[in-house]
Structures are given as structure tokens and as C-alpha cells.
């Protein structure tokens, strides 16, 4: 995977994870163009499109679009499963996740993503293990906070 | 100093902003506060401030002044700080900035931290955005962690290693020992990431690939793991809709693909498991289909046995019928890849593919279209074309050009009859006439020209098509050309294929003039129309004056192209009227242009060259391609090398030589020097085909002999003899072989022989054996002339000889009248 973007139906960016080195300007440009392209898609269309030399896999969950850019040899259908798995993790963590959760707790969304994917590839296929790791890290964060204070 | 506001507080506040300006103001205020806080080196709230900065960065505001702060957070001992610090680094820093290198030491320390979650943060950051320098520095640490027994760290280290290898491929070797026991792990996370690591290594290095195949026996290991996944019972931890760890299954299948590619043994070893996965996987949900998809890709890519391949294609066929459009899309993509190699198997699913043309999704339609074109063959052309034409009618504009081109190609290859072919072209031109590519027009014109028996039908249909609407440029161009060429057939009302229409000459000229005037017509189209009108001057009888008037009007057109044409056509009417009918004669069958020669044919059709009109008559223009080509056709020219200039196309040649043929009355000295060199010939840069580049091998086998030869010319030591042969296959053809000999004591060099015959004859001159007539009769130049004499008139010939002799240029003209009767009767 080259990058993953989460954005609202109004085109507001909620999360951006880049696995390839690009300048800020380039990232902004890509984001803008891709958001426009995906938002223009009609509901009856399939979840895949070709964009530049990449394959784009996107899926809408409620008011959020989850959009991944994968390479030619990557499997589009399993990418849909990856997106779904991430949504499930967020859902379990936040309890019936909605867009607001991700807006107000964006750093947590990143932490969860970073326990699920690394360098654009899946690092843990067990839902339980990902959630356990996040839980433990959160505990550690609290513990250390307590120690300081 | 009051504590900086909390992150959530800030987010809430910013979201209350009602305008962009208001938001910007809030952001600027907060940034100022954060900046001063950073300046004060406040440790307590640095984390909070950076987090806020990251939020504002996501909204699109600059946050570069926080970069160093991220580094400070990473160096902190607090886990919270590190968490935000690493996140900030991944979001704000990139490898282009030198700042990121400062991270290296921190990461190194954290890779060796006592807490695995800190180590995890470091591995994650390095694996996401580590630059080549960082990777080089830290590869050793990563390799160490790859060997740890802690599966949490091991899986991250594996993916981090993948990133290192991508950045610094030379470091691949050092990870090899650590991969030894990776697949013995029970932990799925480690298994998955290990497979990814092995995939990366095998893809990058053929040596690695060979090593893993032979020495490590990777294939059996992978097969075993995959088998366990499929056969094992329900495992809640890894289950997705009844399938056990689909992510791992897919990655294993992908690695198997790489291992099996071009390797018989490996392919055989995985045959069974592939068949098993293909037949046993649940297809009701996307996850099952994802695995099937990967399986199909693997089967098609390795050296699988044919039964397995058919199984794979059938899976794709079933995918095509799936309600889920994503599955259909994926199926079409895969079929497109395999249609070349497994054509027959894919053909079986043709009707389903054709149905996909009606899908609502643009990507699916495009693929279905491409696939449909790939599947068209002689058997299904009629049915397929019906569907494709319907598709052309109803598809989005972005498809029309490609679809039209595809239809033309398919029609050319597999047209069951000429009439069908013309009809199909007509249909495309009328349905999607404005989307047809520019280069299609000349090709179509050529096709139409070559369908000789369909000329009347074609021109009638084209005429009717543009009567109502002449806005589609390609259609109008083709129609104009045809009307110009076959206008006589149009008004004669002779059409076999359908009810002939009654058209008058004036009506035809009306439509062409409308095209000329119309705002919708492009310059090119106007050119076609004007030339067509001009051509009709020899085909129409009553309206020549009208044509003259039109042509003269455009002599002062603003459009330079039109003006030029009009001026030259005017000249044809005035000064060169005697040449007009010959120049504007019907085009003969054209040779197939092998190169990308669109514009070239156009030029010969419609354009006249801007040659100065003082001494030279206007060159080729819409001349008969070459009467030689006609000659070839009449002689059933398959075994005859076409009279082609040395240029790669078989375009009709230039004026020079042909004029000599056609226009026996012309004063030969006035004709352009028809040297084989193209330089003297204007415009079409090709040497006169007559005097050029062919072997002078005898081209018939069935030649009658016995006709007495003659001495055609004998003067100044130069003697030219003619020997005759008649063709059995075509009694109108006489083959004359000339032999030039030189009895003087010096060679004659640069010898060029030219000939011209009266109008009722046609002449073809093949290339001479050499250009030097050696002295003392020690050798001869041989050259072959073919004469077509359909009216069996007495053969007469004018010849022109040019050569260099004794240091001066010689030239002579002569008439040859002593042809024996057997050579022409």
C-alpha cells in the first residue's frame, strides 16, 4: 500500500497515512485530486478505479470514505478486507465508532492503524492481538503519566 | 502563564468556526501560543502542543516549526511523549529534510528499550519513513530483532526489514540467516510478515529465489501452512466469515506464484493445494472471493496443468455472473490478462463478457469493451459487431474513439463481406462520426476505394448520411472524398445493393458547397470538399461552369490551404485544361499502406503541391496512383513486386515520370527532369517510381517469344535495341527489353533512359541494370519496359536519353516508329 486517506463527504481530511516519501506539496495535490475523483463517483460504481499508475480501492462507511492506493500486484479484494478490518478495530476500540470519534481522537486512530499495518503491509491478522496491544500501550501511557505527576 | 488548552478543547473550538476566515484566525492565535510555549522549552506541555499542531496540520495549515519539537518528544522518557513524538515525526518529517537524521540515534536507543511498546514505536517509524541512510545505520538492530523470540517485536522487525530492503537493496543478504526459522512460528502475525519478507526477497533477487526454492524447500513449507489453514477447524481469533486468516492465505498464494513461475517442479508441488483452495473456498462473501482471485492469478502465472487452468478460467467466468460489481471488475481484469494465452477458454464466456458492456460502471464497461475486441474472430464477427455497434451508440463519450477504432480494426480483419464492411463503417461514421480518429479517415478511404463493386452503394449511402447533418468531420471528409470520386455513379442512379436515389448534379454541388461554407467544417474538411468539387468537373457534364465559379471564388480565400488549392485548380481550368481529365481520373486500387501513413494518402488524394507554375505543370495531385499499379492489377499482380519507390510506403509517386507516360503530346523538354533522384520532384519526396528501385527480373513466366527485335536508336555510338515479348495471360501487354550499348572508346555514365507513349497506352519502366554503358561494346545496360495497349493501336514511342560522355552532358530525343506489328496487334 502506498497511502491511506480518510475523508468526509465534504472532502475534509480526517486521517492521512503515507508509506511513500513525498513532499508536503505533493501530498496536498494528490489528496485534493483523489478526494475530488472519489467523491464524484456514483453509488452504483465499483470500489476500484485506476488513477495515475496506481489502483485505488475505496469504501464508504457512514460519512467517512476510506481510500487506499495499492500497487499493480496487490489484490484489490483483500484490500477491501483490510479496510474493513481497520473499521472493525476502530469500532471495537471506540464502541460503535462514528466520524466524531475519529475527529476528536485522531491520534488514537493513528495508533490503532500503526498496530495493524506497518510500512503499508498487514502486521497482525488477529483482531484480538491488535486490540490487546493498544490496550496495553494505553495503560502504559496512563501509568507513566501517573509516575510523572 | 496559563496552561495551554487541551487538544480536545481546541478541536471543539475550531469546529465552531463558521467561516474559513474565522477558523484561520483561531488557528493563528493558537499557533502563536504554541510557538511561544516552544520557545520557553516547556517540557510539561510539549506533548499537548505538538498534538494540537498535528491536528492543525491535518486541516492544512503549516506546522514545520514543530519538527524539532517532535524530536525532543522522541528523546523524552515519557511514553506519552514518545508516542506523540513518533507520530509527529511520521506526519511532519520526510526524508528530504536533514532534520530527520537526528532521529537516528533516538531510534537506535529505542530499538533497544526495555519496554516492547517503545521498541514497537521505533520499528514502526523506521519501517514507515526511514531514509536510506537511517536504514543503513540501523539495519543491524532490525536484524537482531528479527531473531527475537518475542513475536510482537519479531513481526514488526520483519516488515521493517522489508522497508530496509526496499530502500537499500544491497542489505538484503544480511537478513537471510534470520529468515531460516521464520515459518516455524505459530503466531500468525509473524507468519504473515515473514511471508511478506520472503516475497520481497524473492521478487528482488533471482538468486534468493533460487535459494529459497532449492535449499530452503520453501514450497512444501508454504503448502503445509496453507493446508492447515484450510483444514483446521474454526479459530475465532483469525476467522473472517468462516475463513481462517484470509490475509495469510492470500499472501501465501502470492508467494507461491513467485516460486512457481517458470519452474516445473515448484508448480507441480503446489498443484494439489491450488486445486483444493479453488474448489473448497466459500464464495458467498468477498473474503472468499479474494482468496479465489489470488488463486486464479497464481494458477495462470505458474506452469500449471491445463485442467487447473480451465478451472481458473471457469472461476473467473463465475465471477462475471456475480452480483457484486467489484468481483465482476476483477474478473474482467484477469480475463484481459489471460485472453492471449488461453483464448479458447475465455471464448466460452464471451456472452457474459458482452453482457458486461451494459454495466453501469465505467471501469467495468471499459474492460468489457477491451475484452470483447480481443475475442472477436471470424466466427463471431457478425454477432459481436452488433453488440459493439450498439455499445458505441450508447456508451460514454470517453469510450467512443477507442471503440470506433476497435470496430474498424475488427471489421478489417474479419469482415464477412464487402457490403457488410461498408455498412459497418457507415454505421460507425454516422453514430460516432465526430469521435473517429483523424487517421481513420485515410484508411477508410482506402478501404472504400478497394471495394470496387461497392462504389455506387457507398457513395449513395454517404451522400444520404451527410444530407441531413454535416457536422461530424470524419464522416463529412470521407463522404466528400467519395462524392468527388464517384459522383458520376451517384447521379447516374445505378445502385445494385439498394434503391438508387435520384440526385442531380446541382444537388450534389449544393451539399458540397454547404460543407465549404459551414462554420462547423474544419480547414481539412473544406480542403476535401473543394477537391471533390474539382474532381466532379470531369465527372459531371452540366455544371462545369458552376464548378469553375466555385473554384475561382476560393482563389481569394483567407484560408491559405484552400486558396492554394483553388488557385491551382483554376490553373487547371485555364492553362492546363487538356490535362484536367487525366489528372482527375478515377483513383485505382491502392496498395495497402504498411506504415502509419495516414496523411500520405490524404496528400495524394486531395492536395496539390505548391509547385511554381511557371514552367512545370502542376505535379501529381489527384492523379491516378500510378497507371503502373493498374497494370499490375490487370496482370494479377501478386507475384509482381509493386512499383514502389524506395521509400517504405507504396505511395503513388510523383509527377515526373508519370507525366512522361501520360502525356505523349507534351514537349519532353518541358517535363521535369525525371531523374531517379527525388530531389527534382516536388512535394511528395519520392523518386518517380518508374525509373526506380526494382529488380528487373522477368516477371511473367508465360511469355510468348518470336517477335523480331528492332534497333530503336543508333546515334553517336549509342545503340539501343528493343526485344519484345507478349504476355499469355494478358494479350494487351507487351514487354520490351531494351539494351543500350556503346561503341565509342569512352564510357557513357549517368545514363538515363526515358520513354513516353501516346495517351491510349500505359507504360511502366523498371529499373535499369546500371547507369554506365561501357565503352567498346563491352557490356550493355538492360532495362524492361512494359506497355499496356488495350486498344491495340499501333505502338509509338518517344524516347529521351541523357548521359555524360567525354566530359560533357549529352541529351537526345527520338521517336521510335518501327515497332513490328506482332508487338502490338
UniProtKB/TrEMBL annotation, chain A:
Its main location: membrane. This is AP complex subunit sigma. It is found in: Cytoplasmic vesicle membrane; Golgi apparatus; Membrane, Clathrin-coated pit. The keyword Transmembrane helix does not apply. One of its GO terms (molecular function) is clathrin adaptor activity. InterPro entries: AP1_sigma, AP_complex_ssu, AP_mu_sigma_su, Clathrin_sm-chain_CS, Longin-like_dom_sf. Residues 1-140 form the AP complex mu/sigma subunit domain. It is a peripheral membrane protein. Belongs to the adaptor complexes small subunit family. One of its GO terms (biological process) is intracellular protein transport. Keywords: Coated pit, Cytoplasmic vesicle, Golgi apparatus, Membrane, Protein transport, Transport. Subunit of clathrin-associated adaptor protein complex 1 that plays a role in protein sorting in the late-Golgi/trans-Golgi network (TGN) and/or endosomes. The AP complexes mediate both the recruitment of clathrin to membranes and the recognition of sorting signals within the cytosolic tails of transmembrane cargo molecules. One of its GO terms (cellular component) is AP-1 adaptor complex.
From TrEMBL, chain B:
One of its GO terms (biological process) is vesicle-mediated transport. It is a peripheral membrane protein. It is found in: Cytoplasm, Perinuclear region; Cytoplasmic vesicle, Clathrin-coated vesicle membrane; Golgi apparatus; Membrane, Coated pit. GO terms for cellular component: AP-1 adaptor complex; clathrin-coated pit; perinuclear region of cytoplasm; trans-Golgi network. Residues 705-820 form the GAE domain. SMART domains: Alpha_adaptinC2. Keywords: Coated pit, Cytoplasm, Cytoplasmic vesicle, Golgi apparatus, Membrane, Protein transport, Transport. Residues 600-630 are annotated as: Disordered. Belongs to the adaptor complexes large subunit family. Subunit of clathrin-associated adaptor protein complex 1 that plays a role in protein sorting in the late-Golgi/trans-Golgi network (TGN) and/or endosomes. The AP complexes mediate both the recruitment of clathrin to membranes and the recognition of sorting signals within the cytosolic tails of transmembrane cargo molecules. This is AP-1 complex subunit gamma. The gene is AP1G1.
Amino acid at each position: 500500500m502506498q497511502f491511506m486517506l480518510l475523508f468526509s463527504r465534504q472532502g475534509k481530511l480526517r486521517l492521512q497515512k503515507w508509506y511513500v516519501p513525498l513532499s508536503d506539496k505533493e501530498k496536498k495535490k494528490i489528496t485534493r485530486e483523489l478526494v475530488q475523483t472519489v467523491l464524484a463517483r456514483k453509488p452504483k460504481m465499483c470500489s476500484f478505479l485506476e488513477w495515475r499508475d496506481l489502483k485505488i480501492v475505496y469504501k464508504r462507511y457512514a460519512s467517512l470514505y476510506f481510500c487506499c492506493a495499492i500497487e499493480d500486484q496487490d489484490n484489490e479484494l483483500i484490500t477491501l478486507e483490510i479496510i474493513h478490518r481497520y473499521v472493525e478495530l476502530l469500532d471495537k476500540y471506540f464502541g460503535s465508532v462514528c466520524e466524531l470519534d475519529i475527529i476528536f481522537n485522531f491520534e488514537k486512530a493513528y495508533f490503532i492503524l500503526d498496530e495493524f499495518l506497518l510500512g503499508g503491509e498487514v502486521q497482525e491478522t488477529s483482531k484480538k492481538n491488535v486490540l490487546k496491544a493498544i490496550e496495553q500501550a494505553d495503560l502504559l501511557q496512563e501509568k507513566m503519566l501517573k509516575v510523572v505527576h | 502563564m496559563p496552561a495551554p488548552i487541551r487538544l480536545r478543547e481546541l478541536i471543539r473550538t475550531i469546529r465552531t468556526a463558521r467561516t474559513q476566515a474565522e477558523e484561520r484566525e483561531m488557528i493563528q492565535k493558537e499557533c502563536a501560543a504554541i510557538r511561544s510555549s516552544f520557545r520557553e522549552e516547556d517540557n510539561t506541555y510539549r506533548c499537548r502542543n505538538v498534538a494540537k499542531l498535528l491536528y492543525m496540520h491535518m486541516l492544512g495549515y503549516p506546522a514545520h516549526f514543530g519538527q524539532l519539537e517532535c524530536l525532543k518528544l522522541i528523546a523524552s522518557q515519557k511514553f506519552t511523549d514518545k508516542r506523540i513524538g513518533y507520530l509527529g515525526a511520521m506526519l511532519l518529517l520526510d526524508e528530504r529534510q536533514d532534520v530527520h537524521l537526528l532521529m537516528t540515534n533516538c531510534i537506535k536507543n529505542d530499538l533497544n528499550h526495555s519496554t516492547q511498546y517503545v521498541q514497537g514505536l521505533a520499528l514502526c517509524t523506521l519501517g514507515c519513513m526511514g531514509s536510506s541512510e537511517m536504514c543503513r545505520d540501523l539495519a543491524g538492530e532490525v536484524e537482531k530483532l528479527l531473531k527475537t523470540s518475542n513475536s510482537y517485536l519479531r513481526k514488526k522487525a520483519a516488515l521493517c526489514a522489508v522497508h530496509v530492503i526496499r530502500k537499500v537493496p544491497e542489505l538484503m543478504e544480511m537478513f537471510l540467516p534470520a529468515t531460516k526459522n521464520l515459518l516455524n512460528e505459530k503466531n500468525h502475525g509473524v507468519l504473515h510478515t515473514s511471508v511478506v519478507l520472503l516475497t520481497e526477497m524473492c521478487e528482488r533477487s533471482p538468486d534468493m529465489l533460487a535459494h529459497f526454492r532449492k535449499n530452503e524447500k520453501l514450497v512444501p513449507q508454504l503448502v503445509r501452512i496453507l493446508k492447515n489453514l484450510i483444514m483446521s477447524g474454526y479459530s475465532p481469533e483469525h476467522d473472517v466469515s468462516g475463513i481462517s486468516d484470509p490475509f495469510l492465505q492470500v499472501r501465501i498464494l502470492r508467494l507461491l506464484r513467485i516460486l512457481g513461475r517458470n519452474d516445473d517442479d515448484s508448480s507441480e508441488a503446489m498443484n494439489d493445494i491450488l486445486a483444493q483452495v479453488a474448489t473448497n473456498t466459500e464464495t458467498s462473501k468477498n473474503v472468499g472471493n479474494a482468496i479465489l482471485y489470488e488463486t486464479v492469478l497464481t494458477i495462470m502465472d505458474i506452469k500449471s496443468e491445463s485442467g487447473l487452468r480451465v478451472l481458473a478460467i471457469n472461476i473467473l467466468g463465475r465471477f462475471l455472473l456475480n452480483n457484486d460489481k467489484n468481483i465482476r471488475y476483477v474478473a474482467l481484469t484477469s480475463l484481459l490478462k489471460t485472453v492471449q494465452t488461453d483464448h479458447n477458454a475465455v471464448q466460452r464466456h464471451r456472452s457474459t463478457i458482452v453482457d458486461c458492456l451494459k454495466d453501469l460502471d465505467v471501469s467495468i464497461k471499459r474492460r468489457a469493451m477491451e475484452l470483447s475486441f480481443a475475442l472477436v474472430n471470424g466466427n463471431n464477427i457478425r454477432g459481436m459487431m452488433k453488440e459493439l455497434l450498439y455499445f458505441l451508440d450508447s456508451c460514454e463519450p470517453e469510450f467512443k474513439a477507442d471503440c470506433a477504432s476497435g470496430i474498424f480494426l475488427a471489421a478489417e480483419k474479419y469482415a464477412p463481406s464487402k457490403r457488410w464492411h461498408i455498412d459497418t463503417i457507415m454505421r460507425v461514421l454516422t453514430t460516432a462520426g465526430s469521435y473517429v480518429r483523424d487517421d481513420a479517415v485515410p484508411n477508410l478511404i482506402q478501404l472504400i476505394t478497394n471495394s470496387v463493386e461497392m462504389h455506387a452503394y457507398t457513395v449513395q449511402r454517404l451522400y444520404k448520411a451527410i444530407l441531413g447533418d454535416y457536422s461530424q468531420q470524419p464522416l463529412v471528409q470521407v463522404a466528400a472524398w467519395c462524392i468527388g470520386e464517384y459522383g458520376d455513379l451517384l447521379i447516374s442512379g445505378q445502385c445494385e445493393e439498394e434503391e438508387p436515389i435520384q440526385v442531380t448534379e446541382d444537388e450534389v454541388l449544393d451539399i458540397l458547397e454547404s460543407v465549404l461554407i459551414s462554420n462547423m467544417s474544419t480547414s481539412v474538411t473544406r480542403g476535401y470538399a473543394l477537391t471533390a468539387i474539382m474532381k466532379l468537373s470531369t465527372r459531371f457534364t452540366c455544371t462545369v461552369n458552376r464548378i469553375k465559379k466555385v473554384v475561382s471564388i476560393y482563389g481569394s480565400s483567407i484560408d491559405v490551404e484552400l486558396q492554394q488549392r483553388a488557385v491551382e485548380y483554376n490553373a487547371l481550368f485555364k492553362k492546363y485544361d487538356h490535362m484536367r481529365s487525366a489528372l482527375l481520373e478515377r483513383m485505382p486500387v491502392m496498395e495497402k499502406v504498411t506504415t502509419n501513413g495516414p496523411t500520405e494518402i490524404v496528400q495524394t488524394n486531395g492536395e496539390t503541391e505548391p509547385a511554381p507554375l511557371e514552367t512545370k505543370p502542376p505535379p501529381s495531385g489527384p492523379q491516378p496512383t500510378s497507371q503502373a499499379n493498374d497494370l499490375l492489377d490487370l496482370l494479377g499482380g501478386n507475384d509482381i513486386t509493386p512499383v514502389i519507390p524506395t521509400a517504405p510506403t507504396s505511395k503513388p509517386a510523383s509527377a515526373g515520370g508519370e507525366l512522361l507516360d501520360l502525356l505523349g503530346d507534351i514537349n519532353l523538354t518541358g517535363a521535369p527532369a525525371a531523374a531517379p533522384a527525388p530531389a527534382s520532384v516536388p512535394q511528395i519526396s519520392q523518386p518517380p517510381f518508374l525509373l526506380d528501385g526494382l529488380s528487373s527480373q522477368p516477371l511473367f513466366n508465360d511469355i510468348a517469344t518470336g517477335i523480331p527485335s528492332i534497333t530503336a536508336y543508333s546515334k553517336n555510338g549509342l545503340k539501343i535495341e528493343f526485344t519484345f515479348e507478349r504476355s499469355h495471360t494478358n494479350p494487351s501487354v507487351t514487354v520490351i527489353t531494351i539494351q543500350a550499348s556503346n561503341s565509342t572508346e569512352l564510357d557513357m555514365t549517368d545514363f538515363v533512359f526515358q520513354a513516353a507513349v501516346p495517351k491510349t497506352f500505359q507504360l511502366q519502366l523498371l529499373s535499369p541494370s546500371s547507369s554506365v554503358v561501357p565503352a567498346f561494346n563491352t557490356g550493355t545496360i538492360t532495362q524492361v519496359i512494359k506497355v499496356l495497349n488495350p486498344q491495340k493501336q499501333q505502338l509509338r514511342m518517344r524516347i529521351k536519353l541523357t548521359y555524360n560522355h567525354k566530359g560533357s552532358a549529352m541529351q537526345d530525343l527520338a521517336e521510335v516508329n518501327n515497332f513490328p506489328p506482332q508487338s502490338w496487334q
